[in-house]
What we know:
The chain has a two-stranded antiparallel sheet. It has one domain: Farnesyl Diphosphate Synthase (Orthogonal Bundle). The relative contact order is 0.13. 68% of the residues lie in helices and 4% in strands. The protein has eleven helices and two strands, in the order ααββααααααααα. The chain has 279 residues and is mostly helical. The two termini are 28 Å apart.
Amino acid sequence: MFGYVKVNKMDLTYREYEHYRGYYCGLCKCLKDNHGEISRLSLNYDITFLVVVLSSVYRPKSTVIEEGCITNPFKKKKKIINEITEYAASMNVLLTYYKLEDNLKDDKGIKDKLAYNIYKGKLKSAYDKYPQKANFIKEQLDILHKLEQDKNNNIDLVSNTFGKLMGEIFAYKEDEFETELRKIGFNVGKYIYLLDAYEDLDKDYEKGRYNPFIEYIDNKSDLKAKVDKLISMSLGMLAQSIDKLNIKVNVGIIENIIYSGVYLRYQNILEKGCETNVQ
């Protein structure tokens, strides 16, 4: 479900991209150090966006290191680590674990079962640090599972549920930034759910799985217009909340993600999805 909130590398300066990669690699290192090597498999760009936004709002003291990694041990990469990185790593583990748990309620696939059993041992440290967040994530995924079981095609209802989940994750503290951060998370979550459902429609239909857009299986042009409108609204509200935070650092990176990277990502998927059902 994740991987939809990315930068447009071509529109970033070298320094900006290096800094963005620093947050990404720092998150990867924090996952390994705090939750074990296997947790790195769940690393994704959406949670990296969480790190970038929260680090830009709260500006915590960061440690910057350069070292090799498992993908290229001979080339040193910049890694930026701070208290936000640790928080995001825990949220990443909680999301992965409870999503795998949710998947097993229906599919019971061998890969999900294996991954679930591995992540089960990684849950405790994240849960102990953030029990309220963990319980909220599980609660929202349970609600979402019930809606999916009931084959509820109210796209606002199901996407808003995942939006609330992400809103809770972005609401790092109860302070003056909470309202706008919660709105950012909500609209990020809504965008992710909408685009994931759109992209998976054909696959879900073939396998007889739930998809809120199933009634559009033979009407992709109308679905494309609907999803485009819904996502455009969510991204517009996301941008408004970013503006209200009056962020002073990483502005180029954040604007690149919400105005270029995300836009290109969803437009590419919309076009690709529509082409698969041209009559």
